[in-house]
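User: Predict structure, ligand zinc ion.
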Amino acid sequence: MKIICIGRNYAKHIKELKNEKPENPVIFIKPDSSVILKNNPFIIPPFSNDIHYEVELLVKINRIGKHIEPKFAHKYYNEIGLGIDFTARDLQSQLKSKGLPWEKAKAFDGSALIGNFYPKENFNLEHTSFRLIRNGNRVQDGNSSFMLWKIDELIAYVSQFFTLKIGDILFTGTPAGVGKVESKDFLEGYLENDKAFEIKIR
Ligand code: ZN
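Assistant: Predicted complex:
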């Protein structure tokens, strides 16, 4: 199983990190070792002093596919979910400034929180809202309607480079509002009205 992540898919988030709007989706991969086991906390790793949360809509792939056309992309997933792309922002900034790959900052052990999945029929995928609550305060508010590339377009694009397999998960990018986690934080994620995850930070 692999996790394919999209960077810079929301205009306001691109602005807050002072990035340029990309011509094509920015893609990176997290290995299966990045996944946080169920009910485990997120443990702040010793190599970073600036771990950020990034709440994201997730898509679970349920068919094998390559070179998928956008009009057929909807046949490759039945469920969507919510998760966090934990990012060592300090490390990522160093790597970015040197033009180096982001893996150490994005794909480390515990960097992927995968919450619950729900049948896609429960949602209007063109207009699905989600949010992240940190210690009781709403810190990120997202809506799929603001994605620069929609789910089906992402699947089509990604599958030009990577064969999609059953169980692969697509992280579709984070909206604005990313920020630092501190030890003892409590994070909760909601997909529309469903609580998709909760996690403690240690
Ligand atoms: Zn992300």
